[in-house]
Design goal:
The protein is mainly beta. It is built from one helix and seven strands; from the N terminus they run βββαββββ. Keywords: Glycoprotein, Kinase, Leucine-rich repeat, Membrane, Receptor, Repeat, Signal, Transferase, Transmembrane, Transmembrane helix.
Length: 89
C-alpha cells in the first residue's frame, strides 16, 4: 500500500513481474499515463487494485475483466476514457 506518497510519473510496466502480488494500492499520488499493458493478465493472484485519485488516462484494458480473483477495483478520479470492459462487474 503506497497511498499518498506524492509519486509522479507512470506506473512501471515491470510491476507485472511481481506475479505473487495480491494488492496494488497506489491511490492519491500524482501518477500519469496509461494503464500498464499486461498488468492484470500476468497478476493472477491480484485481489485489490486501487489506482484512484491520480492522473491516469487512456483505456482500461479488456484483460482486467479476466482477473477472476479481483475483489476490489477502484479507478475513480482519473482521466480514463472509453467503456468499462465487459468482464468487470
Amino acid at each position: 500500500v503506497l497511498t499518498g506518497n506524492g509519486f509522479h510519473g507512470s506506473i512501471p510496466g515491470r510491476i507485472s513481474d511481481f506475479v505473487s502480488l495480491e494488492e496494488i494500492t497506489l491511490s492519491r499520488n500524482s501518477l500519469s499515463g496509461g494503464f500498464p499493458a499486461n498488468t492484470t493478465s500476468r497478476l493472477r493472484n491480484l485481489k485489490v487494485l486501487d489506482l484512484s485519485h491520480n492522473f491516469l488516462d487512456g483505456n482500461v484494458p479488456d484483460s482486467i475483466g479476466d482477473s477472476t480473483e479481483l475483489l476490489k477495483l477502484d479507478l475513480s478520479f482519473n482521466d480514463f476514457s472509453g467503456e468499462i470492459p465487459s468482464g468487470v462487474g
